[in-house]
Amino acid sequence: MAELHLARLTGAGGFAKLVAIKRMLPHLAHDRQLTDMFLTEARLAARLSHPNVCHVFELGEADGVPFLVMEYLDGVSWDVLARQDLRLTAGALAQAAEGLHHAHAAGIVHRDISPHNLFVTVDGVCKVLDFGVAKLVTELGKTNPGVLVGKLPYMAPEQLRGDPVDARTDVFSLGVCAWEALAGARLYDGPGELAIYQAITERDAPSLTTCPPAVAAVIARALERDPARRHPTAQAFADELRGHAGFAAPSELAAAVRTHGASRLAERARIVTAATMRDRPPPPAESVHLRETAVPVVRTRRRTGRMVALLAAGAAIAATVTVVLVIHRSQPDAVAPPPPPDAPPGFATGIQTLGKGLQHLRDTLAPLQQLRLGQLAVESPVTATVYADDRSLGQTPLTAELEIGHHALRVVHADGREQTRDVIIYPQQLTTERFGW
After folding, report:
1. Active site residue: 31, 112, 389, 422, which one?
2. Apex CA 431: angle with CA 429 and CA 436, to 5°?
3. Could you tell me the CA-to-CA distances from 259 to 81, 93, 122, 253, 407 in Å, in that order?
4. Are 431 and 388 in contact (CB under 8 A)?
C-alpha cells in the first residue's frame, strides 16, 4: 500500500541527515479505509520512542497523498541473519521483544511480527518496523468481522480465530521467528492457507532439537496455543530467552550484519552515494576574460626567479581545477607594499595579480573541497579513543570531518579492549556510529 523513498533532511549550518519517506500509493489514497490505516500507523508510531522501534519524525501530505518521514536504517532484515545461531537469535529477538514491550505499555499490539518486520542495523540494534496493522487495544472491537490482517504463518491462534488479541499475540509471533531461526526451516507451512490455519489453531508446535532443552522450552512456551500459558509480556520472553541462551551483544550483531549482509550493504551504499551525488548540480563554469596586456616579468635575480616559478605554479593549479581568474582593468588595484629598488618593470603588478588570483582560487576551491567531506559522529557509554584508518580523531563523544568513502574505524577502551568496523562517509552528511561495551 506504500512506496519508500530516500530523502535528505537539511538545515542551518550545513546540517544534513538521510531519512526514509513512506508514501501511500497515489491510486489507493482515495480509499478511506486504507488511508485511515496509514494515518493510524503514523499516530501510533508517534507515541513510541524506544531504541528498538523505528522512529517516525513527521506526518505530511502532498497532492492529497499522505506520507511518513521515518529514520533511515542501514542494515538488513532479520531473515538475512536467521541462520541457526543461538546467540544471534537471542540477541536480536530479545531486543525486538523489548521494543514490543514498550509498544504494549502504550496500549499498542503490533499484530504483524515477521522476519521482514524486524531490522538489524549496522550498529547491531534490532528495530521493529511497520505498525501499519497495529490497533489500539481499545479499538480492537472495531476490526471488521472476517478480515485478517498480517502474515498468516506468523499469526497467533486467537488472531486467526478473530478473538481479542494482546501482548501475548506478539509473543507468539516472536516465538515463530525464534523457532524458524534455530531450526533453519519454516514452522507453519502447507499446501494452502487452510492447512496453515489448521496447523496453527489445532496442533502444538514441534519440539526444537537444534538447541539446548532449556532454550527449546522457552520457545515452546511462547508458542503455546492458549495465550494464558505463554509469557505474560514480551519483556518476560526476552529475559527468559537471554537467561537460558546467552545473547550476542550489539557489537556481535553488528559484525554479523556486516559479514552476512556485505553484498547488500555494498550495493545500497553504491546506490545511496550515486543518489546523493546526482542531486548536487556541478559548480557553474565561469566566463573567460583575458587581460588585455601581459604582465612582463624579467628574471634578473634569484628572488625574481622564485616569483616566476610561483606564478607558473599558480597557473598550473588553476588549469588543473578549471578555475579561470577574472581580471578587469577598471577594478582599482589593492594597496601593496612598494617593490624593492632593483625590481624589474611590472613586478608590483605581477605580485598584486598573483595575490588576487590565489585568493580567488582559495574562494573557488572551498565549496569544492566541502563536497569531498562528510562528518562522522562516534558515541559510546564510556570514554574511548577513536581511530580512523589508524589516525587518532580524539575521544568519545566526538564529531570529525572525513573524506567521503570507506574508512576503517577502531575504538579503544581505556582498559585496552577495542572494537573495529568499516564505515562509509557520504558527502556533506553526518554518519553516526554507536559502540557498546
Report:
1. 112
2. 165
3. 10, 19, 10, 10, 16
4. no
Q: β-pairing, 56-62 with 65-71? A: antiparallel
- Mean pLDDT highest for which of 328-332, 368-372, 394-398? 394-398
Instruction: Write down the domain spans for the chain.
Output: 2-72, 75-262, 302-371, 373-434
Is 32 within 8 Å of 24 (Cβ atoms)? no
Give pTM, 2 decimals.
Answer: 0.62
Q: What pairs with residue 6 in β-bridges?
A: 20
Annotated active-site residue 389? The verdict is no
pLDDT tens digits, 153-196: 999 999 999 999 999 999 999 999 999 999 999 999 888 889 99
Spatial contact of 68 and 56, defined as CB atoms under 8 Å apart: yes
pLDDT value of position 114: 94
Domain 2-72 has CATH 3.30.200.20: yes
3-state helix/strand/coil string of 71-129:
ECCCEEEHHHHCCCCHHHHHHHHHHHHHHHHHHHHCCEECCCCCHHHEEEECCCCEEEC
75-262 homologous superfamily: Transferase(Phosphotransferase) domain 1 (1.10.510.10)
Percent helix, percent strand, percent coil in the chain, to nearest 5:
45, 20, 35
